[in-house]
Amino acid sequence: MLTSDTGICIRAVDYSETSQVLTFFTRDHGKLGVIAKGSKRPKSAFGGPIEMFAHGQLTFTANADRALATLTGFEIEANRTNPASVSADLYVLHGCLLGVELLDHMTDEHDPHPDLYEAFVAFVADMCESAAKPSRRDTLALLILFELQLLMAVGLRPVLDRCANCRTAVGRDVRGYYFSSAANGLICRDCESSFHDKVALSTPVAACLTRLATIAQAPLRTLRDLEKVLLGHFAGLMHRAPRMAKYVLRVCPSS
Q1: CA–CA separation, 20 and 24 (whole Å)
Q2: Full DSSP string of 4-60
Q3: Where in the chain is the domain with CATH 2.40.50.140?
Q4: Integer angstrom CA distances of residue 121 from 100, 113, 136, 154
Q5: 54 closest CA partner among 28, 31, 85
């Protein structure tokens, strides 16, 4: 039976000289693996190879055993971000690829997250728009905000309004706080000795984590330090460092 959905391509691998294996993140079906037979032929029904970050309406035939579905149609939406826009700026590309890596690892196939889907589509579009700005501050802020949205969407919302161990609420003074992946959140100075994975937070970083609305306006140095903390947290969740992390931190200036 043919099924339709809207989605964005988050992985594209050559399967043969003429076909591709693709992964889409879709609104109604979650992460979906498909085989696009003949997609690399210039005169195929797909109009040529499907690229990462291509976004549009897909039609597919699902398999009962949940193996790769067969993609029968894909129509790119003209008003959506195109793959060329993502790759036009190296830092934007690295940030979007990091977003894909985290999204892919933190979600399961056939597990719909409509709100996360919309957040990811908006993230890619906003990242492309940020390329026109001279500073990388806005680009990095968008990446950080998406990473936090991702954690919340998959049920791993970090504890940021109180100590994750003793549950003491964070007050106006945010000095002396730590972040622990093991605790999934902030740790106060009275509890930090119990968490060997703790990372000391500067006052500006702690302020951003306790007041997320301030991230969009935070200085670049603060955002870079905050991104280091979040990437360390994802490394703990993934049991390895995100592969794209070094590129995001390398390209981003420290001041």
Answers
A1: 12
A2: EEEEEEEEEEE-SSS-EEEEEEETTTEEEEEEETTTTSTTSTTSSPPPTT-EEEEEE
A3: 2-76
A4: 11, 12, 20, 17
A5: 85
DSSP label at residue 216 = G
Looking only at the bridges linking them, the beta strands covering 30-36 and 55-61 are unpaired
User: Cα–Cα distance between 187 and 199 in angstroms, integer?
Assistant: 9
Place of tokens 């409509």: 114
CATH number listed for the domain at residues 2-76: 2.40.50.140
What number of helices (H) and strands (E) belong to the chain?
7, 8
Rg (CA), the chain: 20
Walk along the chain (255 residues) and give the pLDDT tens digit of each residue.
Answer: 899 999 999 999 999 999 999 999 999 999 999 999 999 888 888 888 999 999 999 999 987 776 899 999 999 887 777 788 898 999 999 999 999 999 999 999 999 999 999 999 999 999 999 988 878 899 999 999 999 999 999 999 999 999 999 999 999 899 999 999 999 999 999 999 999 999 999 999 999 999 999 999 999 999 999 999 999 999 999 999 999 999 998 765 543
